[in-house]
Amino acid sequence: ADPHLTDIDAVTSELRNIRTQQQKVVKLATSSLNQGVTNENVAQTTTALQIFINLGTVKTATDNVIDVCLSECRESLKLALDARVGMSTDMSKKHVGPGRANISSSQGFKTRVWTDLEKAFSDEIYSQCKQVKFLQEILTSLNLYTNNDQIATSFWDRLCECILEEMTNSSSAIQQMLETDYPKLLKSYKDMVLKLNF
User: Fold this and answer.
1) What is the dihedral of CA 29, 32, 33, 39, to 10 degrees?
2) Do 171 and 104 contact (CB within 8 A), yes or no?
3) Does residue 136 sit in helix, strand or coil?
4) Is 82 exposed, middle or buried (0-12, 13-18, 19+ CB in 10 A)?
5) Largest alpha-carbon pair distance within the chain?
6) Is 54 exposed, middle or buried, given 0-12, 13-18 or 19+ CB atoms closer than 10 A?
7) Does the N terminus or the C terminus of the chain have fewer Cβ atoms within 10 A?
8) What is the C-alpha separation between 130 and 133, in angstroms, rounded?
9) Global pTM exceeds 0.85
10) How far apart (Å, rounded) are the C-alpha atoms in residues 198 and 192?
């Protein structure tokens, strides 16, 4: 940082080496943190967080984990709320006249969507929420945040926004189905929260 040292080759070379080594450490720590959180490995997660603490980038590292978890939740919801998933090619090729039956209002379609949504909340989204909860517990044990709910609260707010966005972006048939059977959606969400022991 000293301006008098900027033109010295040895210093410039050493700073370049330090940056290269730091990038390697960050890459390894990022991989270790992601693995540790996914496998809920306390030692691995704690070590990776300590590295980021020493580098002064722990907030960025944890934000990246949250972003990945939210991205997985979004993909799971998109798949569950996709009206085209599960439609057989035979049905989509049928020619029907005016007043044709809407595939998306059929009982089989509704059953498929609810099965996929329940699976999303009970498995995929639950798994991501569990990882965030685990990360929050490790951060709390390291006394990294005075407000212990900082990461969890941010994640939950963003997850709720994500759920709302995906429902809003779904087809009108799915939106209508969700409105009609709204208690089912609430039950899936509530069951997931109870499973997380919040």
Assistant:
1) 180
2) yes
3) helix
4) middle
5) 82
6) exposed
7) N
8) 5
9) no
10) 10
**Long-range contacts formed by 110-113: CB under 8 A, 24+ apart:** 110/177, 110/181, 112/85, 112/86, 113/80, 113/81, 113/83, 113/174, 113/177
| Structure tokens given for 194 | 């109870």
Do 138 and 148 form a contact (C-beta atoms < 8 A)? no
pLDDT of residue 16: 79
The whole-number average pLDDT for the span 116-136 is: 94
Asked if pLDDT for residue 94 goes beyond 60, the answer is no
| Amino acid present at 186 | L
Amino acid identity of residue 85, one-letter, is V
Residue 5: predicted pLDDT: 66
In this predicted structure, the answer to whether residue 91 has a pLDDT above a threshold of 80 is no
DSSP 57: -
**CA-wise closest residue to 64 among 42, 40, 33:** 33
pLDDT for residue 17 is more than 90? no
